[in-house]
Each structure stands twice: as C-alpha cells, then as structure tokens.
Design goal:
mainly alpha
Length: 121
C-alpha cells in the first residue's frame, strides 16, 4: 500500500483508482519481485498512461478544422510577406486571406520592406 500512496502523490493528475490499479496489476504480473521493482514498473505504466492522455488531448485539439484553416491562411500570408520585396497591398492581403472587401485598392504602398534574405540579423 505504501507504493500506491507514494505513486498517488507523484501522479496527482491521475485518479487514485488508476494508480491503485496500476500497482495491483504490476504486483500480479511480477509476484516475486520486491516492492521497489513493482513501484518502478507501476511508475512506467502510469507515466505511459499520463503521456498517452496528453497526446490524445493534443490530437483532439489539432483536429479543429477552423483552427487548421486559420493556420493555413496565416502561413500563406507569412510566406507572401517574406517573399515580397515591397509591402503587400490590402488587396493582395485580402486575396491571400480569401476575402475581398468593397473598396479595396490594388495600389502598392510606397514603403519597401526588405525580403527575408536581405534583412539584417
């Protein structure tokens, strides 16, 4: 029981029942092992379970279609700005972002921006 208590403190983000189950499973799997070995085996199991939950959460958040569309548009804009020797006009920006507000002009702005390769580091 000491092993389960120590591990419950080490993994507060996991439910205590999960910790007890992991320790019990390792004790059944390795019945002749000393408590330190069982604790290490249970820690490995709990660590894997905790990381697996974090990865699943990350996958769910990356499957957001609105976020993916926003990232795609932002990436297009960043690439276009880096590849342009001049400032992009509002019309060019709107075109890259897929919008075309009324009254947008295609007149280039007078200020020139250095390309990525020409910028000082």
């Amino acid at each position: 029981m000491e092993v389960a208590e120590r591990l419950a403190e080490a993994y507060p983000e996991l439910p205590p029942a999960t910790v007890v189950h992991a320790v019990a499973h390792c004790a059944e799997q390795f019945p002749v092992s000393d408590p330190h070995f069982i604790e290490q085996a249970a820690m490995a199991r709990l660590h894997e379970q905790r990381d697996g939950n974090e990865v699943a959460s990350l996958k769910a958040s990356l499957d957001d279609p609105e976020l993916q569309a926003e990232l795609t548009l932002s990436t297009r804009l960043i690439i276009a700005v880096n590849n342009s020797a001049e400032r992009l006009s509002q019309h060019e920006i709107d075109r890259l972002l897929g919008s075309n507000p009324r009254g947008a002009t295609d007149a280039p702005r007078p200020n020139k921006l250095p390309r990525q390769a020409d910028r000082p580091r």
